[in-house]
Amino acid sequence: MKSSELPPAHEAWLPREHPLHRPRHGRRQLVALICLLAFFSAPLSSWLFGARAEKVENRPLAEFPSITEGFGFFTGLNAWATDHLPFRQEAVQVVGAISGGVFGEPAQLHGSAHGSPVGAGQPDAKPPIEENVFPPVIEGEDGWLYLGHDVSYRCVPKRSLGEVISGLRRWREVVEASGREFQLLIAPDKSTQHPEHLPEEYAGEECSTEQRAEFWRRVPQATGAIDMRAPLRRAAQRNGRPIYHDIDTHWTHEGGIAMTRVLAERLQPGLSSSWRLAPSRTYSHSADIPGLLGRQRAVPIQAYSLAPDGGADNTRFRASDFHEPLHLESAAKPGMNTRPVRMVGDSFTQFASPYLAAVNTDLTITHPDNVALDPEAAGRLLAEGEVVTFELSERFVAGGRYPMLDAEVADRVGAILARHPVG
């Protein structure tokens, strides 16, 4: 009778002819291990040889996870390695070309580090690493493209709408308590301003539509935010064309001008009555959405001259993403605001900055990320102004994605403003 007990030795140490022998590391395991090491070491080795990762999506690259995050260190490695792979843009283009040219359908390029998870409607649910529900791009009618985050950020917010409202209110409180004027402007999503080109059906349609309606019903009234939807509609009707680009997520320069006019009139009613606007140069701008599908596309940009006093053009075109604060000065003229303005703005402000510079004598713009990363530096910068203006994107506000919405950030900046009051 044979014994049913296992041999005392580990199966890897048994003689090869033994029926229970199994090598510790088979060939497949070894190949998998080599591939794993190559994947995670590729960003570092390519960096040593001079290659640098570039943004493919309209968001910062994923940061290397901290060892203090526990198991999150290991789950975060995938996002970091994916974002920092060399030649990632070229790979996306190849996949897009194969999918479209061979199979006749758009590539489903998921894998955003900040992707959108299952479990929509849970305010503080953390998105998983892999985006497996919402596509990065929504392909609409007539060739229109929409950023998938317009939908995914609404369906899976990081903060509830109540928390967002509370955070925005806190900012108004700390700024106005220091004697400064506070302006809050929400740049609408392209899908909000031009929903007519959205497809009949798309992932997240129901939850994003409901959240959009709730957002615009509550946020402007509860926070005093400027609702730009009506001014943008009037500008589009006046110009006879859409106020947003068909393949870019941002508004046109006409949208930037509408924003500039609204902010100026809030500071001083009638200030823009002497302005003279005229078309100036045109230039090509690399559209941000096609790259997510592996395509390279550009849109023509029509820029304008703006003479606040009706005379000479006073615009200032300075390319900046505001991660390094941009300071713009101009001699005072009629039709200009002469109070120092310190502004927090994102990519929508890039299309407005030439015109903001034309009508403000002293303007500095910084990015929302800077405020959360270094509240003390942000506080010192905002303390230089008599007017504090926020331009924030709808998708990031609705999704609670701005770290600066935390009350602690507002309080730390507010403490600095309080030490340097105005008036």
TrEMBL record:
It comes from the Bacteria. It is found in: Periplasm. InterPro entries: ALGX/ALGJ_SGNH-like. Keywords: Alginate biosynthesis, Membrane, Periplasm, Signal, Transferase, Transmembrane, Transmembrane helix. Its main location: periplasm. Pathway: Glycan biosynthesis; alginate biosynthesis. The keyword Repressor does not apply. The keyword Cytoplasm does not apply. Residues 137-295 form the AlgX/AlgJ SGNH hydrolase-like domain. This is AlgX/AlgJ SGNH hydrolase-like domain-containing protein. It comes from Saccharopolyspora halophila. The lineage of its organism: Bacteria, Bacillati, Actinomycetota, Actinomycetes, Pseudonocardiales.
